[in-house]
Structure formats: structure tokens, C-alpha cells
Amino acid sequence: MLNKEIFNKLVDKDKEIVIYKHISAVLEFDLETAGSKSSGEERAIQLALIAQKVHSLETDKNMLSILKELGVSESKKEGFGESDFEKALIKNRYKVYLRNSKIPNEFIGRKEKALSLAYDKWVQARQTENFPLFAPLLKKVVALEREEANFIKEEGQGLYDALLDSYEEGMTSAKLDKMFGELEPKLVEMVKKYSTKSIKDDFLYKNYDKKKQEKFALGILKDMGFDMDRGTLSLAIHPFTSTLGSDDIRITTRYSDPSLIDPLSSTIHEGGHALYEMGASSGEIKGTSLGEGVSMGFHESQSRFYENILLRSPMFWNKYYERLQETFPENLANISKKEFVEAINIVKPSFIRTNADEVTYNLHIILRYILEKKLIEGTLSVDDLPDEWNKLFYKMFNLKVDRIAEGCLQDVHWSSGLFGYFPTYALGNLYSAQIYNQMIEDFGGIVLFEKSFEEKGLLPISEYLNKNIHSKGGLYTPEILIKRITKKALDGNYFTEYLNKKLFTLTN
Amino acid sequence: MLNKEIFNKLVDKDKEIVIYKHISAVLEFDLETAGSKSSGEERAIQLALIAQKVHSLETDKNMLSILKELGVSESKKEGFGESDFEKALIKNRYKVYLRNSKIPNEFIGRKEKALSLAYDKWVQARQTENFPLFAPLLKKVVALEREEANFIKEEGQGLYDALLDSYEEGMTSAKLDKMFGELEPKLVEMVKKYSTKSIKDDFLYKNYDKKKQEKFALGILKDMGFDMDRGTLSLAIHPFTSTLGSDDIRITTRYSDPSLIDPLSSTIHEGGHALYEMGASSGEIKGTSLGEGVSMGFHESQSRFYENILLRSPMFWNKYYERLQETFPENLANISKKEFVEAINIVKPSFIRTNADEVTYNLHIILRYILEKKLIEGTLSVDDLPDEWNKLFYKMFNLKVDRIAEGCLQDVHWSSGLFGYFPTYALGNLYSAQIYNQMIEDFGGIVLFEKSFEEKGLLPISEYLNKNIHSKGGLYTPEILIKRITKKALDGNYFTEYLNKKLFTLTN
């Protein structure tokens, strides 16, 4: 029998850690949206202080003694407690304890500060297309990531796998190699098949009034079930979702691109993340470390489900296109729904990951996965990165990278120390297609699914996701969660089947 | 000789405390400007956690041992170190240690949470003009303030004086009684003398384009020397200044009033606070607890100097009126500079403190001082507050309060536990006039002062304030600082002389 009094101590301590993490999120959100020009350096110090505080709470003697009183030991690390909540919290806290207590507290502060400098230089280097400016900083980040991986890796675990596991528990490079190895040729094949067709899409890049765009996107967010009392939509330089409190979940968007679909899809994408956070922050797990998305891959599955599977589907625009046309008659009056849906599903290799279509997107990820793995394993040096990137890019996309800002300097991730994070974007796509397949089955087949959407809109879909995924928060590992929902392990074929079916239908 | 190594430990610890205070400021700024509707309660918990952390750092054994190693003891509390910086930091830290170690850590959290609830209810009560809704919460706040005063008061010190000293070191109710006692009849006399004149001011309350207002105000802020790299101006429900980092000092404004002068004067007011914070955050005191305004009264002296002494002076508009007229020809083309300056200096008793003119403003403060002192001393009950307010208001202003939102529910301060804070507003006015008098002398007399302004604008004035006040931060107590600048103790007569001279000139 679990000692409830001790368990409650663990819950309290866990909640305190979460409060500090929310405070971190406030510091980051504020820096991104409202900071003064000179505030960056000092904010990094503030963030480092909170990160060190979190690390202390996660690894102090008090934490260990609570966990030991609950029964954990080196030889038995999980299986304590009766409810899923108890089991997951004890298991996770011990896992974090074991991992993070191997990281010295001073390292946390040192890393935060180095990352802040690296980020600043990356911004400059990208603007001025000057890789040598960034290279020394990136070397430092790679060294720090390797240092951290060396701290935390378990016996027999590779350096890259140790980092990967922090973002996607249970995932390994062996599994990724297999999955991505099967995926890549299929995607290359699809690019060949679908990118040749010439489809008109110039109307997407005309001038669209920003206020009207915002109103339209907000309408969809509300239809999705985004709770305007517990969240906000605001402007920022980059679109992102941030949880600043259990009831304070914010998404940001930007309208800088002269495009209708980029701001809309990124708002709906972030809306998917926000729904997950709102749903996870409920019931007994609210305010605990389990009250959030279980993994980065699962998180991305939710954002991409709304952004791609729904927002780029013919079904979606059967319901919404009239409203869109009425909002922007000046650009869309003469564009048919069919033309519009074809335009937003164009398959075309391009340089920038964030602008990629659904087919080429995962190729961008596979490329990054291959390179970052080598960087961490020490088989690729930072100085050779641009050349390696360009070579591999040419091989996969048949395009020559001329500008480094469109090559290996395009993404913020490496400057922010997010090694092992990129694969979760592709995993998100794979999860989402497998979940979609199951959802259709659970709605009684595609006809009933589409009928439900026609009659009741997005809400039944959001409710399905909430019930099966969002409300579960971090109770189950990604591997267990996908099996609970779909009765199968993650399988990349659902994704290629989904895409092939959609593209075939659209082009025939 | 001071042990520098130990002193540096104190500096490091002090800076850590300041970082946590900046983090608090971020949490508050974000709540005011960007929080979701449901975020308040949880933000209060976050703030309480940081407040408790600050309290722990201020009062832990490590702090005491550092201070003792530097020489402090119950019998000798100051005078350690060679430089003013060393002396002030050691003295202040020991003072804070002695005071705050008498407050239990649990009290800090309890108070923060109670204040958050009280604030929410105050907002509701003011909106619905329902005092009984707020009364139980205000009783709780008064009880908490009394509890805190009982913890921190020194031997022989009254409860109210213990609170007052936290905002204005060295100030006592005995001194205030004397100063306010002399001031009140003079102000009442001035109201009688100047409020009878009928002056046209309807043009101030026409429609003024907000973008143009912002541009005009930003122009003045820049002329004042507001560093746009180290600060921002943004929108919020209330105008305020907040220091979120040594290089991240923000002011907010609002344009909700259909008035030209309210938003402008409040922006310039906050600009005065911001200049003080920017100036104090420099040199060796930057990033320490001395790198900020020395007291609330001195802070207010800087904001009011710009807002009233400069912005409401004929001299100011000699330079700026043409620009204002050109910005708003639709409303000001036919208004002469003289008419404009008269209009912004109208003396007229009214209900709302924040809208009050320079003469009646201090009367509003004296009224609050009298009442809050009684509440803390226990000679006035919360239930009797509205009646007492209305009676005293009638006596001082010859106006009958009909709406409680225009009476004792108008200010946020009491709901936020700011007892002992109101007097600093009046002190700010008094300091500012005395500093102004000295400034004229140091510029070589009024003629040369006005010539300097005509030729060089606001910057030499800001430089004077920076050199004599801002850059000194918290190195000297308010009492010492005013003497260093003006060679005299604070004397309320400078204020009434300044006002009488201006109003006499304007009306003759």
C-alpha cells in the first residue's frame, strides 16, 4: 500500500517545480514579445537562476528521501502506487532524479548562458549569411550537448539517444534509422509523382488584410474548442505556444509573410498545441508535471493534425471555404474551392523547412537528423557542416543551396541546444496519421466521420482527441499511449497511405 | 579594513536577490499586460513563491554570517566599509536582515495570496459600487498589515511608522503630522483663491488621435533622455513603470480618457520614474539593491518634476506648443499658448485623486494619510471608513461624495496592502519643489535656467537630475540625499512658494 501522506509530499514538491517552470515560461514569453532591446543578456541570467532552482528541487536530498520512502531503488525503479497517476508520477520523478542528479548544478547555469550567446550570434550570422561567425558558438553548444549526454546517458546508451530520450521517451536512433529509412524512398517517390503538376497558387500570395485574417483564424480556434478564458492569441516574431500557468496557455502568430495560408496554418498549428496543453491541464494531474503533453512527438502530432490533416483537407474547406471567400472577396471571388484546396496542397521541393509541404517536410527532418546525430557522435565537425548539408540536400531534394540562410543556418534549434528534437517533428506527422486512421474507424468510417464534421464541425474531433490524448497528459509513455489509442505500435505506413490517398484524390 | 572577499560575497548575494525581484517584476508586468483571464490566481502563487525565496535569501544563516564577518552587530549596525557603496550595502542588508527575519516565511506567502484575493474583490466592488463586498477583504488586509507592523516595528516605534519606514526610510508620522499640518491650511487657502476663476478647457477633452498622441509623447521622452534601447513604452490598463532588469525598464500608458493632457502627463510622469531607474542602474551599483530609486518619495519627486514642474510650466510650452499645435491643428489651431497653459493648470476640487490639479492633489493625500493611519492604529474600523472618508472629504474639499467609486473605493493601494505608501506622493511633490529651487540656483538663476531650456531643451535638466539624484541610487538615505543636493532638510514651503508663484503669474 502506498503511503498517501508521503505521496502527497511528492505531489507538492512536483507542483512547486512546475510553478518554477511556468515562471521560466513567463520570462521567455515576455522576452519574445515585450523585452527591451538590451534585455536579453540579463534575462538569460534570470532564466539560468530559475533553471538551477528547478534542478536543485529535482535532485535534492529531500526529493530522494521522499522517493525512497515510496519504495524506489536502483533495482526497482517503477511500479509503485495504485492509480496511473501515482505510478506515473513516482516513476517519472525518479527517472528525472536519476538523470538530473548526474548533471552538476553549475552546468545548468553555464549551459543557459552559453545558449543565450549562441542564439544571439545565430541571429546575426543568419542575417549576414556568415557561418564562420556562428561556428565557434555552435562548436561550444555541441560540446555542451555532448557533455550533458555523457552525464545522463545510461549504460550502453549512445550519446545521441540520451538526448533524444529527453524529448521522446523510449525513442532510439535504431528505431528512427529503421522508420526513416523506410520513409525516405517513399517520400522521394511521391515528390517525383506529384511535384510535376503545375497548379495555380499566386492568389495565396496577394495582400490579405491582417485584421480579417486574425478574425478568421480566431473563429476556427474557437470552433476547435480553444478556451479564450484560459488562453490568448497575440503577436510575436515567431509563432509559438507557451504554458505560463495551468490556466494561462498562450499562442502567438505573425503576419509578416504576404501569404494567406502561412499565418493561418501556423495559428491553427499552435492552436493544436494549446488544446493539448489545456486538456492535459485538468483533473488530478492539473498543476503537476503530468499535466502537459507527454512528449514532443505527441505534441507535434496534435498541432499537425489540425494544421495538415484537417486544415489542408477538402472536407475542411467544404465547410469553411464560403466563409473565407466572403472574408476576402477581392482575392478569392473567382477561385473555386477545388482550386484553393489544390493550391494549399502543392508538392514542391524547396529550401526552407517551415514552408515545406506535407511530403517534403519529413525529408527536411531526416536530413537534420542525419547531420545532428553525426555532430553529437563526433563524426562530423561543425566546420564541415555547411558542405555536408549542401551535399545531402542536393541528394535528397535535387536542389543546390546557394544561400546559407536557406541552408544550415535556417533553423533556431541547434543554436538553442535542441539536439535530438528535430526527429519529433517527423514523429508528430507519423503519430497524427495513425491517430487519424483510428479516429475514422471510431467515428464509424469515413462517411460518418465526414458527416459528423459537416453537421457538428470541429468540436467532436477535439473531444475525441481530448478524451484519448489530451486529458491523459503524461500518464503514459508515448509508446504505451499510441498503443492504447490505436492498438498498434507506431507505424510510418499510415502516414504515407494518408498522403498518397489525399494527393491521388486531389490530382484526379 | 573591510575584507573585500567577504564583501564580494555580500554583493553576489545581493545581486541574486535583485534578480529574483526582477523576476517578480516580469511576472507582474506580464499579468497586467498579457495575462489570460484565468491567470490571476496562479500568478499570485508564482509571485508568492518568489517573494518567499527573496525573504529566505534576505534572512538566511548565510546572510547573517556574511554580515557578521563584515563586522555588524546589534550594538553597531552601520559604518562598515570605506566607500559609500560598501557602507550603504552593508547597512541596508543588515537593516533588511533584522527587519525581515522577524517576519515568518509562511507569512510572506499567506499575505501575497490574501492580497491577490483582496485586489480581485476590490475591482469587483468598485465596478459595482458595493463596499460591503470589499469590506471583509479589506479587514483581512488591515489585519495582515498590523500583523506585519507588529513583527517589524522597533522598540518604541508605532505600527504605522513601521510601515511608513519601508517606503520612506527615516520618515515618521510625527514629521508628517507637522509638515501636513502646515501644508493643509495653505492649500485650502490656495484653492479658495484660484479655483474661482473660470477658464476654458473644453478643447482638452475633444477627440485626439492616439497614434499622434503616442508619437508626441515619445518625442518628449526621447528629449528627456529616455533610452529606447533600455526601455519600452507600451499599453496597459494602468500607467506604471516597472524594472524587469537593469537594462529593461518599461513604462506603460493608456489612452482611454478622452483627454489630451491625461495620457501625455501620465506618460511623462512614468518617464520620470524610468529615468531615475535607468540612471540608478549604472556604475558599480548596477544590478545591486542600491541600483534603484532610494525611496518612494524620491521616486515620486522625479516623476512629478517632469509631469508638473516641467510639463505644466509656461516655459515648457514656449518650446513645445508649436509642435503640439501642428500635431493637432483640428483642435488647437485657434487656441493660444496662454489659453492652453492656463487650461492645464486649472485649480478645481474634484473627487478623483489621479485627476487632481497640483494644489488639491496633496489634500487628497493628507485625507488618505489621516484615515489609513487610524486604520492601522486600530482607531478606525473598516466598516466606518466610507462615512469617515465622506465627512473628511466634505470638510477639506467642500464636496459631497455620492458615489463610493469616487470615494474610498477609488484607489487600488489599500487592496494591495500599500499602507504607509500614500504620503510618499505628497513628499514627492515637496522634494520636487525643493530640488527645483536648487536647480534654478545651480543653473545661475531663473533667467539662465530658462535660456538653457530654450537653447538646449530637456537634456541639461535630465543630466542635472542624473548627476545629483539618479546616479546615486540608494547610496544615501532620503534625508541625507536632500541635504546633499539642497543643503537643507526637507521643507514644505518650497512647494507652496513654487505653486503660488506659478498660479499668480498665470492668472495675472
Strand order of the largest sheet of chain A: 1-3-2
Task: Please give the largest β-sheet of chain A.
Answer: 3 strands, mixed
Question: What oligomeric state best describes the polypeptide chains here?
Answer: homodimer
Task: Measure the end-to-end span of chain A.
Answer: 62 Å
- What are the secondary-structure elements of chain A, in order, as H or E? HHHHHHHHHEEEHHHHHHHHHHHH
Low-confidence stretches of chain A: none
Biggest interface, and residues per chain?
Answer: A-B, 37 and 37 residues
The helicity of chain A comes to 55-70%
- Kindly name the structural category of chain A: mainly alpha
Q: How many E-type strands of chain A?
A: 3
Strand content bin of chain A: under 5%
Radius of gyration of chain A: 23 Å
Shape of chain A: globular
Mean pLDDT of chain A, as a whole number? Answer: 96
Helical stretch tally of chain A: 21
Provide the fold topology:
Two copies of one chain form a homodimer.
Chain A: H1 4-34, H2 40-59, H3 61-69, H4 84-100, H5 105-128, H6 131-152, H7 159-167, H8 173-194, H9 210-224, E1 231-235, E2 241-245, E3 248-253, H10 261-280, H11 296-310, H12 314-327, H13 329-332, H14 337-343, H15 358-377, H16 385-397, H17 423-442, H18 446-456, H19 459-468, H20 478-486, H21 493-507
Helix pairs in contact in A: 1-2, 1-3, 1-4, 2-5, 5-6, 6-7, 8-15, 8-21, 9-10, 10-11, 11-17, 15-16, 15-17, 17-21
